[in-house]
Input
Amino acid sequence: MPKILLVPDKKAAFGSLFFGCSLFCRPAAAQPENERPPAAAGQFYPANPGELRNMVDHLLAGAGRHGLDGELSAILVPHAGYQYSGPIAAEAFKTLKDEWPSVILIGPSHHVAVKGAALVARGSFRTPLGSVPVDEELAGKLLAASPVFAEEAAPHAAEHSLEVQLPFLQRRLKRFRILPVVMNTEDLEIARKAGLAIAEAVRGRKTLLVISSDLSHYPRSNVARPVDQTFLKALERLDPEYLKLTGQTLMSRGEPELFTVACGETAIWTGLYAAKALGANQAQILRYANSGELVPDTADRSVGYAAVAFVHAGRPKNPDLLDKKAQQRLLDAARTSIADGLAQKRFSFEPLNKNYDLNLPAAVFVTLRRHGELRGCVGTVEPQFSLWEAVRHFARSAAFEDTRFQPLEQAELKDIRVEISILSPPQRIKDAGEIVPGRDGVIVRNGRHSGLFLPEVWESLPDKTSFLDTLCSQKAGLPPGCWKDPSVELRVFRSEAFSE
Output
C-alpha cells in the first residue's frame, strides 16, 4: 500500500528519475528566509525559466478542451518528469479557468516518514518562474483544528511531488497562495480526519485542491494499463474505503514488478474525503496513459498517470450495472470453473480483464439450481476477490463445498442453472420496519450466530414475518422471532442478480 519509494544511490535512481520517483536533488542556493528552493529543477523539469515557460505553455496548448460537467473542487495530477507525465497533468491544469486565490497541494512524502500530515506553514516555495507564498492563515487554521497536521519542513525539503505542480499553476493562475501537505500513512482514519479538517477550514472560501499522485509502479506497460484503469474505476465511486480495498485486491494478485498501485494513495484518500465534504459527487477521468505508452523505452518498467477532475454535478454518477455481455461472461466463467473442478484442475488467478469492472472487488454469491431446486449456494458479504475471481471461486465452492449437499457430479452439470448475485455493502438498520420486501437482502447477527437471505428469497417467502422467522431459525440458528429483539443486529443490502 502507500510506501516511501527510496532509491539507494544516484545510479540506481536514474532509471526512475523522470517517469517515477527520485531521491536526490540539487544543492540549495542562498534564498530568503523561509523560502523553500526548487529541488527538482533541472531533473523533473527545466531549470531555465524561458525553457520551462515554453514547455509548460506547449503542454497546456496540446491538452484537450474538457467541458467539466459541474463545479470543480479538486484535481488529481501525476508528478513525474514533464516529458513523461506532463501531457497528462496538463489536461487537468487546463480546466482551471477561474481564479483560485488559495490552492492546497496534497501529495506523498517519498523520502521521510510522516505520522500524520506534514505542512509548511510559512514562507514561500520558489521555482524558476518565481516564488509562490504559503497561505499562512489557512495553515494556522488547520494546525489549530486537528492534531493530524504538524508543521514539518524536513519532508518537503527534497520532495518533488508538490513542486512539479507549481509551474503549471504559475502559468494558469495570476495570484494565488499555496498550502503544501505531504503524507504517507497507511491509516485511512488519519486520511479521513485530515480530509474533513481541510473541508471545514476552506468552507465558504474559494480554494482548489490539487492531489498529486502517480499510479502503478513498475509493471510492464500492458499490465500497468488494466491495473490503473481498474483503480480509476474504483476512484469514480468516490469511496476511499473501497478505493483502498481495490488497491489491496490488485496488490494481492502478485503481478510481476507491481510495487504499488499509487505512490500518493494516502493523498488520494485525503483528497476524496475533502472533495466529497465540499460537495463533489463525480470524478471525471480526463486522460490516462502510462510511461510505456508515452515513451516506449520504459515499457518494461512503467508508471501510470491520470488526470481527474472532481466536480459537483447536477446528478451524481452511479456505478454502472453490468451490461448483458459482461453478465454472460461471468456466467460462462462460473460454469467453466465448475467444469474445471470436476476435471480436478487447480484453481488459479487469471489475467486481469479488459472489462475493468470485472477486476473490481465485489461481494458475490453464486447459486446453483437443478430442476428448479437449490443445489448449492456459497458467497460472501465482504469482498475478498475481484468480481471475476469471486464468481469463479464461489461457483466451484457452491458445486463442491456447500455442506448441505453432496459434491456435484459430472452427470448433473448439464442440468445445473447458475445464478450470480453481486451484493452492495451491508448497511445496519434500527429495526425490521426499514426492510423493504422484494428489494432488500437481510443479515441477522447475534454474537457468533448469523444468517443471510439474498433478495431473491422473497420470491418464495414474500411475507416479511415468514421471511425473517425463517432467516433466524434456518440460517442463523436462532429462535424464529429473533429479529424482534433489539439486541439482534439487522443489516440490509441489495443485489444485482442474473442467471443462465
The two ends are 38 Å apart (CA to CA).
